[in-house]
């Protein structure tokens, strides 16, 4: 009789495991923003790297001198200085931002961007993971000969 | 209680035995060849069918040796092919190195009008012959189809229809050498390259100028519209009347098979030109490298083209280009 009771409880174990799993799974859901992205607790808000591609999806960055041809990103002044090759078609360039974890960019880059108006540099805003910090970066393009 | 558990175990054991026995492999048996003359065709060329290029087929035919031998093979095209259309008098096998080795099976084939044929003069009961249809100008924009047929010594005949295949309205020209300050004037309308004298005589047809400039380094090999800003035409004095503004957009990793003739199975087709929008593109393309390309639209919008750079030579200040073009109206 005791053996029978034990077997009955054994049968309940899978059901208990399912309930436990569902409970754990749903207990710590983060809110989701209007883009379907998780709003996290991170407050960091900066651009970590930047690339500019031409219409052929190849870099248009001027190679520069030395081993560091990367754009100059100033996270304090919130500027990105980019030297591009002579003859770059700046009406059809594709900026690529790398942001700190969980941050997002506004406006979104969905295709080629016109950056040919050098007197009026384009701006993008970085929004932190907790969506509470916003920093607007200005991308300043300089055509090198 | 014990009896019930015993029964359950017995049942599971039976299920396992059934499962194991049902997984036994079936023994392979050689297929039985079909009786009578058989045939089959595959199309070997891919991509759009362009006037001047070929459509290649492999036509296989076979009969059981004790039923007869192959006598003849024939292909009829719905539109007669251009010069060079032929049914080969060789069958091929692939050797250990992967190379196709020909085996002659008859006298050279004949092509009269739309019919190409070969008569076998060797004792064979199976062969695969290649048929090359050179697409004629008359087929431009039309559909072409083919009827393959074979006869055997026992009087049997088989046939196989292929197609229809649409022939594109695109044109191509391959391997045009361009030289800085030499043959550097490119006409999309004529699909040709001119020197300064010829360009002056065809001023209304010149769409682009090829330049090489070592400095700045980003300039290098370039295609520039005659109407581009002077900074993109350094040191160039254009012939009188050469003044068109042709739009260009650089491309990379687009080695069209027809133009590049490399291993890449990529083809630019009419739809690519139809969807092309160069309204916001510049009228110059600098820094072209080997295997790069540029999309092109002529000033009047009549032609859209893709210019592929087959090779560049910095020392010789030259390049070799190929052009694929579609007339839009």
Encode the helix/strand succession of chain B as letters: HEEEEEEEEEEEEEHEEEHHEEEE
CATH topology type of the domain at 47-143 in chain A: Immunoglobulin-like
Number of domains of chain B: 2
CATH hierarchy, class of the domain at 47-143 in chain A = Mainly Beta
Strand order of the largest sheet of chain B: 1-2-8-4-5
The rounded distance between the terminal residues' Cα atoms of chain B is: 90 Å
Taking pLDDT < 50 over at least 5 consecutive residues as the criterion, the unreliable ranges of chain B are none
Q: Could you give a short account of the major beta sheet of chain A? A: 5 strands, mixed
Alpha-carbon Rg of chain A, integer: 25 Å
- Structural class designation of chain A: alpha+beta
Q: Please compute the radius of gyration of chain B using only Cα atoms.
A: 30 Å
Q: Let me know the number of strands of chain A.
A: 7
What is the tally of helical segments of chain B?
4
Residue share in helices of chain A?
Answer: 10-25%
Number of helices of chain A: 1
Biggest interface in this structure?
Answer: A-B, 17 and 18 residues
Shape of chain B: extended
Oligomer: heterodimer
Strand fraction band of chain B?
35-45%
Q: How do the SSEs of chain A run, as a string of H and E?
A: HEEEEEEE
Walk me through what this model shows:
The complex is a heterodimer of chains A (145) and B (329). Chain A is an alpha+beta fold and 145 residues long. In chain A, 18% of the residues lie in helices and 28% in strands. In chain A, strands 2-3-7-6-5 form a five-stranded mixed beta sheet, with no helix packed on it. The radius of gyration of chain A is 25 Å and the shape is elongated. Chain B is 11% helix and 41% strand. Chain B is built from four helices and 20 strands. The longest helix of chain B has 21 residues, at 2-22.
